[in-house]
Write a structure and sequence with these properties.
This protein has 312 residues and is α/β, with parallel strands linked by helices. It has eight helices and eight strands, in the order αβββαβαβαβαβααβα. The protein has an eight-stranded mixed sheet with strand order 1-2-4-3-5-6-7-8, with helices on both faces. Keywords: Membrane, Transmembrane, Transmembrane helix.
């Protein structure tokens, strides 16, 4: 019996040591070693389809990010700029394609950042949850939030193209819709003019004692910050037929399911929750909800519908 316990103890320590080593190597790989495509030479944006790679953070060179762009021939300084946020497939180039005709028709400069990640099927904290926390649960500095990266890209484009625009619009679908509404909630100081969160899989509710990303626990978001978020222009855009949870990646945790059984229901629940809080606090509330008829979980069709909320 003693021999059995000795073997069991030895196996336990081997497993513990293995887990520790894997954890250390995982942390180093994800958060210490540089990652991303090679940074490109700084150049002005070309007309039509283009792309560039820049350092994502201003404080270090640990991560780079590729940004796909589309610039109409007649676009000039102070014309509209929009960031288009991809879904869970991290296919920024496809999302750019969906916006090219829209950009030409309405003379909009489109910026589509690509938050590439080899492990995107297993982790969402780095993109749609904003990179507030590491995969291991520790906090990241605000300088490395995914939302801050958008602000950094805006600064880079302004500086390298002699652009003086003071703000930009923001559109995201599915995982991108998650990104957009969380950026409004968590970074109201961002230079966003109008934002559209389309067909998000689930939402962050303005509840301080509910764990993130379902609520705001451990985010240090104050009531004053929330009030400023509600003053921003946000449209929660829902597809009338986005009621099939089998499409795309759909989170079915207990806290997610409490928001609704499909994306359409969850979007309505999120809007109602935020509206009720603003009304209770007597805060200004510039958020809206709308439903696109005869459209489901389709980023291309939702993009075509989104533009009318931006140009009006």
């Amino acid at each position: 019996m003693n021999k059995f316990f000795k073997i069991l103890k030895r196996v336990f320590f081997v497993l513990l040591f293995t887990i520790l080593i894997l954890g250390v190597f995982g942390y180093v790989y994800l958060y210490v070693l540089p990652k991303g495509p090679e940074v490109t030479e700084v150049e002005k944006l070309k007309t039509g389809t283009d792309s560039f790679v820049m350092y994502a953070y201003k404080t270090n060179e640990r991560r780079s990010i590729k940004v796909w762009t589309y610039k109409p021939e007649n676009w000039k300084n102070n014309d509209r700029i929009i960031f288009v946020m991809h879904g869970g497939g991290r296919n920024a180039d496809d999302y750019l394609d969906a916006w090219k005709n829209i950009a030409e028709e309405h003379n909009i400069l489109v910026l589509a950042p690509e938050f590439a990640n080899k492990f995107s099927k297993y982790t969402t904290n780095d993109y749609q949850e904003g990179n507030l926390f590491t995969f291991f649960g520790t906090s990241n500095p605000k300088e490395e939030w995914a939302y801050t990266v958008i602000e950094n890209i805006f600064d880079h484009v302004k500086e390298t193209n002699e652009i003086t625009n003071k703000n930009y619009d923001l559109f995201g679908h599915s995982a991108g819709g998650q990104f957009v509404h969380r950026m409004i909630l968590l970074m109201p100081e961002a230079r966003i003019n109008k934002a559209i969160a389309a067909n998000a899989g689930f939402y962050t509710l303005p509840i301080k004692d509910l764990e993130y990303p379902y609520g705001l626990e451990k985010t240090d978001i104050s009531s004053n910050s929330l009030q400023k978020s509600f003053e921003k222009e946000l449209i929660v855009l829902l597809g009338e037929n986005d009621n099939d949870p089998s499409l795309g990646t759909f989170r079915e945790t207990e806290l997610a399911m409490q928001q609704g059984e499909h994306r359409l229901a969850r979007g309505s629940y999120f809007y109602k929750t935020t509206f009720n809080l603003a009304e209770k606090k007597s805060w200004d509330f510039n958020w809206k909800v709308d439903t696109v008829k005869n459209v489901g979980h389709n980023y291309s069709e939702m993009s075509k519908q989104a533009i009318k909320y931006l140009v009006n």
